[in-house]
Design brief:
Helix content is 25%, strand content 36%. The protein contains 5 helices and 12 strands.
């Protein structure tokens, strides 16, 4: 068993893993807290205007899906023939616009991801006509430990077949914070 009693002056880490943490690892690292995150369906689609997105979101809500999160990211793909484009401009002083490419129009296409709890059935996915990917169930672990013990924990998890999604350091070491403030 790893002794986490020295961990009070250690940083806290959040570790996200695909799958469930085996009891042997839970016993070995008793100072951690574990939260299970259910599987999530991530729907993604490109739209060319806000009205199109509104229709898609209304369709999702009309069938009773609870939307967890909506993410936007710009897309560089050109829209289908006849879709809306906007002229690429640069603002200069006095509010005047200067066209960077006078005869070129840049398509306005946004890519959205909508996160929904659970795994959606294939019939529903065909009806929606969105592209999808499923994020499997995950274990979210918070552990206050030294970097060496964290490495040991991560190695134990990957040795038993768990896939590591991410590791985030949540807070700095207390002594480093005190030293930067002129403390003991």
């Amino acid at each position: 068993m790893v002794d986490l009693s020295h961990a009070m002056n250690s940083p806290t880490y959040e570790v996200r893993l695909h799958g469930d943490i085996p009891s042997a690892i839970r016993e070995q690292f008793r100072g951690m807290t574990i939260h299970r995150s259910p599987a999530t369906t991530i729907l993604y689609r490109e739209v060319t205007d806000a009205a199109e997105l509104d229709v898609l979101l209304e369709k999702l809500q009309a069938i009773g899906l609870e939307l967890w999160e909506i993410r936007e990211s710009p897309s560089r793909r050109r829209p289908a023939h006849g879709r809306r484009c906007e002229r690429l401009t640069t603002t200069i002083s006095a509010g005047q616009e200067l066209s960077r490419f006078p005869d070129r129009y840049i398509p306005v296409v946004w890519s959205y991801e909508v996160l929904v709890e659970g795994r959606l059935g294939s019939a529903l996915l065909r009806y929606l006509r969105w592209s999808i990917r499923v994020q499997p169930e995950q274990s979210v672990v918070r552990i206050r430990t030294s970097p060496g013990d964290l490495h040991h924990f991560l190695a134990s998890c990957t040795d038993c077949g768990l896939t590591l999604e991410w590791v985030i350091r949540l807070n700095p070491v207390a002594r480093q914070a005190e030293a930067s403030l002129g403390g003991p």
